[in-house]
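Entry type: protein chain
Record version: 2
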Amino acid sequence: MQSGQIDDPARRARKWAAPRVAMADLLLFYDVNVWHRRCVLLKALLVTGLGWQLVQGDEIIFDPRVDARVTDHPAARLLGRPNETVLETFDELIYRFAVDFYSQGNAYLEVARDRRGVPARLWHD
Protein backbone atom coordinates (compact mmCIF):
# COMPACT_ATOMS: atom_id res chain seq x y z
CA MET A 1 0.00 0.00 0.00
CA GLN A 2 1.39 3.34 -0.99
CA SER A 3 1.00 6.50 1.03
CA GLY A 4 -0.46 9.39 -0.94
CA GLN A 5 -0.46 13.04 -0.01
CA ILE A 6 -2.99 15.62 -1.03
CA ASP A 7 -1.35 18.84 -2.15
CA ASP A 8 -3.97 20.98 -3.83
CA PRO A 9 -3.24 24.70 -3.39
CA ALA A 10 -6.62 25.62 -4.90
CA ARG A 11 -8.44 23.83 -2.07
CA ARG A 12 -5.75 24.75 0.47
CA ALA A 13 -5.87 21.23 1.81
CA ARG A 14 -3.44 20.05 4.41
CA LYS A 15 -1.11 17.25 3.48
CA TRP A 16 -2.56 13.90 4.41
CA ALA A 17 -0.95 10.48 4.47
CA ALA A 18 -2.80 7.19 4.62
CA PRO A 19 -2.19 5.12 7.78
CA ARG A 20 0.70 2.69 7.47
CA VAL A 21 -1.37 -0.20 8.82
CA ALA A 22 -5.03 -0.81 8.09
CA MET A 23 -7.52 -0.85 11.00
CA ALA A 24 -8.54 -4.42 10.25
CA ASP A 25 -4.90 -5.50 10.50
CA LEU A 26 -4.48 -3.72 13.85
CA LEU A 27 -7.50 -5.58 15.21
CA LEU A 28 -6.13 -8.84 13.83
CA PHE A 29 -2.72 -8.26 15.49
CA TYR A 30 -4.47 -7.56 18.79
CA ASP A 31 -6.49 -10.78 18.50
CA VAL A 32 -3.85 -13.24 17.28
CA ASN A 33 -0.67 -12.02 18.97
CA VAL A 34 -0.91 -12.66 22.69
CA TRP A 35 2.28 -10.69 23.46
CA HIS A 36 0.98 -7.64 21.62
CA ARG A 37 -2.33 -7.94 23.49
CA ARG A 38 -0.50 -8.16 26.83
CA CYS A 39 1.57 -5.08 26.00
CA VAL A 40 -1.54 -3.08 25.06
CA LEU A 41 -3.40 -4.15 28.22
CA LEU A 42 -0.39 -3.42 30.43
CA LYS A 43 0.15 0.01 28.91
CA ALA A 44 -3.53 0.89 29.35
CA LEU A 45 -3.44 -0.31 32.96
CA LEU A 46 -0.28 1.64 33.76
CA VAL A 47 -1.70 4.84 32.29
CA THR A 48 -5.22 4.62 33.73
CA GLY A 49 -4.55 2.59 36.88
CA LEU A 50 -3.04 5.52 38.75
CA GLY A 51 -6.49 6.87 39.55
CA TRP A 52 -7.80 10.37 39.06
CA GLN A 53 -8.75 13.49 40.95
CA LEU A 54 -10.99 16.38 40.07
CA VAL A 55 -9.00 19.54 40.80
CA GLN A 56 -10.12 23.15 40.51
CA GLY A 57 -7.27 25.59 41.08
CA ASP A 58 -5.38 24.24 44.12
CA GLU A 59 -8.44 22.58 45.67
CA ILE A 60 -9.19 18.88 45.23
CA ILE A 61 -12.92 18.73 44.60
CA PHE A 62 -13.29 14.97 44.29
CA ASP A 63 -10.92 12.03 44.79
CA PRO A 64 -12.64 8.62 44.50
CA ARG A 65 -9.79 6.86 46.33
CA VAL A 66 -10.33 8.98 49.45
CA ASP A 67 -14.05 9.72 49.51
CA ALA A 68 -16.66 7.46 47.94
CA ARG A 69 -19.49 9.98 48.14
CA VAL A 70 -19.92 12.27 45.18
CA THR A 71 -19.98 16.02 45.83
CA ASP A 72 -22.46 18.49 44.35
CA HIS A 73 -20.00 19.62 41.69
CA PRO A 74 -21.45 18.74 38.22
CA ALA A 75 -18.18 17.24 36.94
CA ALA A 76 -17.81 15.15 40.10
CA ARG A 77 -21.37 13.83 39.64
CA LEU A 78 -20.63 12.93 36.02
CA LEU A 79 -17.29 11.23 36.69
CA GLY A 80 -18.45 9.61 39.93
CA ARG A 81 -21.23 7.81 38.07
CA PRO A 82 -20.69 8.17 34.32
CA ASN A 83 -23.85 6.30 33.21
CA GLU A 84 -26.80 4.25 34.42
CA THR A 85 -24.72 1.08 34.75
CA VAL A 86 -24.03 0.99 38.46
CA LEU A 87 -21.12 -1.43 38.17
CA GLU A 88 -19.22 0.63 35.58
CA THR A 89 -16.98 3.22 37.17
CA PHE A 90 -15.10 5.98 35.40
CA ASP A 91 -11.88 4.00 35.95
CA GLU A 92 -13.25 1.03 34.00
CA LEU A 93 -14.65 3.29 31.31
CA ILE A 94 -11.38 5.11 30.75
CA TYR A 95 -9.42 1.81 30.88
CA ARG A 96 -11.47 0.40 27.99
CA PHE A 97 -11.00 3.72 26.19
CA ALA A 98 -7.21 3.41 26.63
CA VAL A 99 -7.20 -0.20 25.40
CA ASP A 100 -8.92 0.89 22.18
CA PHE A 101 -6.56 3.84 21.82
CA TYR A 102 -3.39 1.79 22.27
CA SER A 103 -4.57 -1.15 20.15
CA GLN A 104 -6.07 0.79 17.21
CA GLY A 105 -4.67 4.28 17.45
CA ASN A 106 -8.04 5.93 18.10
CA ALA A 107 -10.85 5.70 20.64
CA TYR A 108 -14.12 7.46 21.33
CA LEU A 109 -16.30 8.40 24.29
CA GLU A 110 -19.96 9.12 23.72
CA VAL A 111 -21.36 12.04 25.70
CA ALA A 112 -25.10 12.40 26.26
CA ARG A 113 -26.33 15.81 27.34
CA ASP A 114 -29.38 16.76 29.37
CA ARG A 115 -32.00 19.32 28.33
CA ARG A 116 -29.80 22.22 29.44
CA GLY A 117 -26.92 20.99 27.27
CA VAL A 118 -24.77 19.88 30.20
CA PRO A 119 -22.94 16.53 29.80
CA ALA A 120 -24.94 13.98 31.80
CA ARG A 121 -23.69 10.51 30.78
CA LEU A 122 -20.55 8.92 29.31
CA TRP A 123 -20.32 5.68 27.34
CA HIS A 124 -17.64 3.75 25.56
CA ASP A 125 -18.69 1.10 23.06
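Comment: The chain has a mean pLDDT of 82.
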